[in-house]
Design brief:
116 residues
Length: 116
């Protein structure tokens, strides 16, 4: 089964362009520009959608402009397999809940940090 996954990054002071690199993309880790919008409070919301995503755990990282890599501290993080390990964000898609902090089912990302 496949679903639509959305990576969302919110930061009031961020200016476009904002990019994401992720294991969700085809090819993986391609630099992709995120779509920009604003909420009713004026916070900048950046998002990127991915279709036909299989169940699993995926990684991503966000870059503001050409060189500022950032972490969204409201999202789950983990370490990648490089040495020394780098901190990355995690996206969990369907399957058992266990200790997961985010779950994607259908077109909704279920998370204690964000709801659709």
């Amino acid at each position: 089964m496949t679903s639509r996954a959305t990576i969302t990054f919110i930061r009031a002071d961020a200016q476009p362009p904002v990019f994401v690199v992720t294991s969700l993309s085809t090819p993986p880790w391609e630099v992709l520009e995120m779509d920009a919008s604003a909420d009713e409070y004026g916070r900048r919301i950046f998002s990127r959608h991915f279709d036909n995503v299989k169940e699993g755990t995926y990684q991503y990282k966000v870059r503001i402009g050409e060189s500022q890599w950032v972490l969204d501290e409201s999202k789950d993080t983990g370490k990648d397999s490089t040495y020394p390990p780098r901190t990355i964000h995690l996206v969990f898609l369907c399957g058992g809940y266990g200790a997961m902090k985010a779950k994607m089912c259908g077109d909704k990302l279920h998370s204690p940090y964000r709801s659709d």
